[in-house]
Amino acid sequence: MAAMETYRQTLPARSTLRLPAATVAVSLKLARGAVRAVAAAPGSVIHCLQGECWLTRDGDPRDYLLRAGDSQVVSERGRWVIQALTDCLVEVREEPVSRRRG
Predict the structure, then answer these.
(1) Deepest of 10, 16, 53, 86, by most Cβ within 10 A of its Cβ?
(2) What is the pTM of this model?
(3) Are strands 25-30 and 6-7 parallel, antiparallel or unpaired?
């Protein structure tokens, strides 16, 4: 199994994280109440590794509650907003282009 590349970045509270072109995964450590926006491509997976977070996508009336071990697959391009309900660790993982089908 090939090693996965991880990208870590500290962002101002109201910024949107955009994954660099070759990035496979981004880990976000969020304190309770912190909010981050992520621009995620279809096929990406938002995974809650620790804690609990609330997740929504611009233009989508649905909200998602993720607890440790839960994931949400990104079906459409857009900006996802993640709010930490407790201290949490969230990973946004994009499938490498070479492994995508289509």
Answers:
(1) 53
(2) 0.71
(3) parallel
Cα separation, 86 vs 88, whole angstroms = 6
More confident call, 96 vs 33 = 33
Q: Which of 95, 87, 6 is nearest to 48 (CA)?
A: 87
Q: Report the length, in residues, of the chain.
A: 102
Tell me the CA distances in angstroms from 60 to 32, 55, 64, one per residue in order.
Answer: 24, 11, 11
- How is 38-71 classified by DSSP, letter by letter? EEE-TT-EEEEEESEEEEEETT---EEEEETT-E
Letter string b/e over residues 55-86, b meaning 16 or more CB atoms within 10 A of that residue's CB: bebeeeeeebebeeeeebebeeeeebbbbbee
